[in-house]
Amino acid sequence: xxRIPHAFALAFGQLGDRAILVVLARSIAITLAVxxxxxxxxxxxxxxxxxxxxxxxxxxxxxxxxxxxxxxxxWLLFRLVALAVVQFFADEVVEAVEARHYPSALATRRxxxxxxxxxxxxxxxxxxxxxxxxxxxxAAILLVTGAGTAILFWAVNAWLLGRELTEMIWLRHRTPEExxxxxxxxxxxxxxxxxxxxxxxxxANLLAPVIGAAATAHLIHSRKPITTRARP
Length: 232
Description:
- This protein is mainly alpha-helical.
- The protein has one domain.
- It has nine helices and no strands.
- The chain has helices at residues 4-13, 18-52, 60-87, 90-101, 103-108, 114-141, 148-170, 185-198, 204-221.
- The chain is globular.
- InterPro entries: CysZ/EI24.
- Keywords: Membrane, Transmembrane, Transmembrane helix.
- It comes from Tsuneonella suprasediminis.
- This is CysZ-like protein.
């Protein structure tokens, strides 16, 4: 647990690396493009629905509806989309961290084929959907508490993010003898909790997946001594 602040400090400290900046730019661009396409699709869908029911409109009503639905959808789905996108660039994030801090780990890292990356992303997406569906009834009950619903969803997403980020790095370094995730449940929860909190903050939410991946790499590789470290 006491390694977590140090891991995040190292992750933030490497934001200026060209490799990290490239991944960050790609992931942000693709994530925003996904929600832009969602907004356009909702706009056309609402316009067609209004026309079907004979509602006279100049397009402003469907545009307003598209904006509202996209904002709500973005708030609910941003974590899933951003993490799924960065999953495909995780190799570059991990490689940048390992090249600078853990060259011996870099030598044994393996790149995942596209099919395995896609499978891991879909598995994580299904896990997130199921967990949030299961949490919905409890969230409804906790509405009367005011903050209870928000805390519940934060906790659920903290668990999900901690697991997904750990698995993202672990799959690239797993040996045939290893069957369990390398970080303890409490460490994964704390890791995911910080990233989940970042996802709630405007602008910081764009950095969160990349920072989370870099911090996870530090947490996993710093579990054992590294005999040789590359110079910054």
